Structure formats: structure tokens, C-alpha cells
Amino acid sequence: MSFRGRGGGGNRGGFGGRGGGGGRGSFGGGRGGFSRGGRGGGGRGGGGGGRNFDQGPPERVIPFGYYDYPCQDDLVLKVEIEDVPYFNAPIFLENKSQIGKVDEIFGNLRDYSVSVKLSENMKVSSFTPKQKLYIDPGKLLPLNRFLPKPAGQKGSGPRGGVQKRGGRGGFGNSRGGSRGGGGFGNRGGNRGGGGFRGRGGNNSRGGGGGKRCSTGAESRQWGYRFEHAPVNEHPIVGVLAQEISLDSADIFGDQIFLDSIRGDWQSYIGASYVKFIEGGGARVVPIWIDKPKKYYEKIMKRVNGVLFPGGNADFVNNWGYAQAGRFIYEIANEMNSRGEYFPLWGTCLGFELLAVLGNNGTDLRSVCAGQSMALNLNFTSNFTKSRMFRDAPQSVIDILSEKPVAANFHHYCITPQNFTSNNLDESWQMLATNKDQNNMEFVSVIEHRKYPYYGVQFHPEKNLYEWHKSSTISHSYDAIKSSQYFAQFFVEETRRNTNLFRTEGEANRFLIYNWPAHFTGRNGSALMQMYFFALHDGETHLNKID
């Protein structure tokens, strides 16, 4: 029996899943939004980003394991207790001095190790072999959380409904291999099966790259690098809506824009972003704009991640998309600092939002000519060490680096110079760059160094779902394959979060299925389909969440 992984030995490990698309990507400058009388922005919409909350040492710590061997700049601990740590759980000395946080978990249920990402002031050479290290008992999960249910006992989650810690069918016996089966229910391999969620490995198709802290023997036995449990088999992702603004006519199409003026629509989401998430294997809940922070705190306790879509909202606003994005970013920082794995993804406008919020609300963008360009990515030297790409199939890396499949539609860029001069590189990694029509270099892909936050300046979803014949969007097999990788990657990240709605009925009230997708492409819209939301939609759901 082992922790859930996608198989040992020769099982498959590569990524699949569908992308989705839409949104023009950049902002106008400083215009008030159309809805609610066209309010002007009040100051920059950023703020609040990047803060960590030091909660001080825990009341007590207990022995967790001992220092076994180094792995690059990390420690590998041999765990001596049965309970399983949370991702990012702090690790301490006996005197409660924190030395780092749990990064990876690998091994099987009865015999596993963890790697510890050391704090900035810590060095591997400071520790001696077999040195005891400690953990806050409040950061542990009981082992029985990961054991298979007794014969005849159903999993606690309702079929097809809300994920309830085990979901449909319990934890074990899903295509498990011989001699131990596949723990945690996903295609376990032979002689011990899976592990803590791996994405590739020695003999798996689609792995490779990146840091490997397991020993050679473990790699041969398990075939995967194991990271974290539990695994959520019913993820739900929040997609942030944005305001309908005065310069949105070219996105909606003229007739649709006029119709929105006559109606009571307040905000929208491009349907391609919904399809992007659904194609990766998750469901979608729309997240409203112009709500109090308490609303975002409540909804983020229920969803498993948030996507910031592209569009043309303004960052100077202290309302709408900018304000909601700031609230979500602040709450996500608090959650991740507590060891709750909560992923964020930003596409185009959302990419820029993440960068601005990560820069404490200061706008670091430059005007550029990145509209309607299909480009290949210029990867940085450290991209293979990133979470986003370290386990990507080589075929996907080859496509992204050699073929013009990245659909760019933006009027603003973040240059590498601004990225570093604003010290954004201290908390974020730059993974790829491109050049615009005037040969200006700009950042294309970023990843937070500590938290599961990811941003792409291009639109991986447009390759699948936007069909304007005059567009430069590629719909080739290679373009589709690369888009599917990004969708699958992010949804896999959300599976590591175990938030859930209280009941299946509560989830059903919030899912995007409650609203129709309008065929806006026939009216000249840049998006083939869109969801529109009235003010009372948000008010109704605000009253139903507690």
C-alpha cells in the first residue's frame, strides 16, 4: 500500500487535458467601468500583495524524523511517525526555531521521507546526519485518511457531487498493480504501486527534469517523484468575472454591447476560460466582482483554486476586477502561509494582475505591441527546475520552444528589466520571454517561488476555443497539445487543495451551469461565447453563503 501516485514502474505519467480561451488581454488606461454609472477609479487597484503573516512558534512541537541526506539545497528527512504532514508544514529544531518547510513527500504509507526547503538563513552544512527535527502536531493528518475503506464501506463523498475526502469509491483499488496495489486510487504500478502524486519518473512516459530528492532505489521502485496528499478527485475552480466597461465593444461585438446597455448585465466571463478548466478535469464557479472581502474569504474556503482571466479591465480601479483580484490574492497568501495549498492562475490580464499584486500594487507594465502574435517561447535557463515545466513531456517543451503556438493579444508588457529592477524576481521566477512587433523583450511566463501561483502573458486557451479566421491563433495539433498541457497542469495543482462546499446542493447553486453561454462570435465579438451576469446574480448568491 502506498500513497496515491500515477503508478510505479512503467505506467504513464505525462499530462493531458484541454485548454480553453478568450479575452483580449490588456487594459485601457484609467477609464471608469460602464456598469453602475461608469465610476472612475480611485487610485491604483493593486496593493496588499506579497505579505506573509508570521504566526510565531507553535505551542509545542513533537519529534518528526531525522536528517537523512542532502538534496541540492534541501534536507531529506526520514519520517519516524505515522501521521502525514501538510504541504508547506514548518519544520523546527527542538527549541522551536523554524528551519524550513515541507516541500516533497515520497515513499509508501509505512516508510516515507520528506524533503525540507530550508529558510533563507539556513544551510545544509549546519545540520548533522541523524539529527532530530520537529513539527507542529497541528500540521499533521492521520494515516487512516489515506488507507483504503473496509470492504463494502462506501467513500464519504456523494457520487458525482461534492468531494468529501475520499470521493467516489474511497481511496484504493483503482487499477492497482500487483503486490500492494495503487494507493489513493489512481493507476498504481507493480510491486507497491503509486505514491504521493507524481508527475513523471524514471520509467514513466512523460516525466523527467527537475529536482529528485528520492534515492535511486526509491526511483526504481516507485517510478515517480511524490509530492503531496491528499488528492481531490472533484476539484472546483473559481473564475473571476470582470466589469463591462466603456471600451468593451470590440470584445463583445457592437450589437451585443448595445444589448448589454439596454439590459442589466454588470459583468462577464469568456466561456473559453470555463472550457479551459473543464477540459483539464474540474468544474467552475463564477466569482463576482464588487463584493465585500468577507464574500471572497467564504468562497475561497469552498473552491480549490482561482483563475484570473484575460480582458480589458483597469488596474487603477479600486473596485471591480482589480479590487476583487487584490482581495483574492491577499486571502490566498494567508491560506498558503498557513500551509493550505491554494493555487492561482493568471492569463494575460490575469498574468499582469499577479505581477502588479506581487509588486505591492505598483504598476510595472510598459506599453508594447503584443497584439495578435503567435510566438514560440524563449525559455530561461532555470525553467526545468520550475513546478510548471520540470515534469512536462519533452514533446510539449519542444513545441513551445520551437513552434509559434503561444497566442498573444496584449497592449501591455512586463520587461525583464522592470521585473528585476522592481525586485519581483525575489518572490517570482521568470520562466520564458518573447519579443513584440517592435523587438521589445517581455516576460511570458512566471511562477511564484514559494506559493502555487502561475501566470502566462499569452492565451493557451485560444488555440482550442476561439475561431476567428483572420486571427493568428494556431489550431494545429501541436498547438492543441501544448494548450492541453497547461489546462491539465493547473487543474492537477487544484487537486492538491481539499476545500469543499458543505453540501452537493450548495455547490449546485454556485456552479456555472446555472447560467447560459451566449453565442457572441456571430455578432463580431472577439470571444465566441460569453457568460453575462446581472447585479442580482451576485446578490442572490451572497445571501446564500455563510
TrEMBL record:
GO BP of this protein: pseudouridine synthesis; rRNA processing; tetrahydrofolylpolyglutamate metabolic process
Report the active site residues. 348, 459
Q: Where found, per UniProt?
A: Nucleus, Nucleolus; Secreted, Extracellular space
Keywords per UniProt? Hydrolase, Nucleus, Ribonucleoprotein, Ribosome biogenesis, RNA-binding, rRNA processing, Secreted, Signal
Q: What class of enzyme is it?
A: hydrolase
> Region entry Disordered: which residue ranges?
1-57, 145-214
Where are stretches of biased composition, namely Gly residues? 1-51, 154-211
What Pfam family is a match for this entry? Gar1
Q: What is its EC number?
A: 3.4.19.9
Residue ranges that the Swiss-Prot or TrEMBL entry lists as coiled coil: none
Similarity-based family: Belongs to the GAR1 family. Belongs to the peptidase C26 family.
Name listed for the protein in its UniProt record: folate gamma-glutamyl hydrolase
